[in-house]
Amino acid sequence: MKVPGPIIEGRLIRRYKRFLADVTLPDDTEVTAHCPNTGSMLGCQPANARVILSVSDNPKRKLKYTWELVETSPGVWACINTARPNAQAREAIAQGVVHELAGYSRCRSEVRYGSENSRIDLHLSGHETRADAWVEVKNVTLCEDGTGYFPDAVTTRGQKHLRELIAQAEAGDRSVLLFVVNHSGIEVVKPADQIDPAYGRLLRQAQAAGVELLAYRAGLSGQGEPDGDLSLVGPVPVSLQD
Question: How far apart, in whole angstroms, are the C-alpha atoms of residue 236 and residue 233?
Answer without folding.
Answer: 10
